[in-house]
């Protein structure tokens, strides 16, 4: 059985998908882009501002599901430019304190709304 997770504190989906889906003890959070949930606009200020907004969006969805970054077991980071890896990694890493999740980081030719970063997560809620 699956449950749809939704919060107004994260951006509205821009297609036919949910912000997150919970099934059993697993939470699958759709890729988040640096859209401000209040305006729907992409934040400006470069890769650091974009990554911070993405992480805040993920945090809002995790919170709605009763979880936090300590529950995350897997992440996928999509970058428009692998040259941004160090900057993204520094901000991303500040949201995790121990028992880091598994992860891959891939460069994508293009991302939704021409953003520089998108991140999805899977969390274990048990």
UniProtKB/TrEMBL annotation:
Bilayer-spanning residue ranges: none
CDD domains reported for this sequence: YjgF_YER057c_UK114_family (cd00448)
Regions annotated as coiled coil: none
InterPro entries recorded: RidA, RutC-like_sf, YjgF/YER057c/UK114
Molecular functions per Gene Ontology: deaminase activity
GO cellular component: cytosol
Family indicated by similarity: Belongs to the RutC family.
Name the record gives this protein: RidA family protein
Organism, scientific name: Mucilaginibacter ginkgonis
């Amino acid at each position: 059985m699956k449950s749809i997770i939704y919060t107004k504190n994260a951006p509205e989906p821009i297609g036919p998908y949910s912000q997150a889906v919970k099934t059993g003890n697993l939470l699958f959070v759709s890729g988040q882009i640096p859209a401000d949930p209040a305006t729907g606009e992409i934040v400006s200020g470069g890769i650091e501002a974009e990554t911070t907004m993405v992480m805040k969006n993920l945090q809002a969805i995790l919170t709605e599901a009763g979880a936090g970054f300590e529950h995350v077991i897997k992440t996928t980071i999509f970058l428009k430019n692998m040259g941004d890896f160090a900057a993204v990694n520094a901000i991303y890493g500040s949201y995790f304190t121990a028992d880091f999740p598994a992860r891959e980081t891939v460069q994508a030719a293009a991302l939704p709304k021409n953003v520089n970063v998108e991140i999805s997560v899977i969390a274990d809620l048990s």
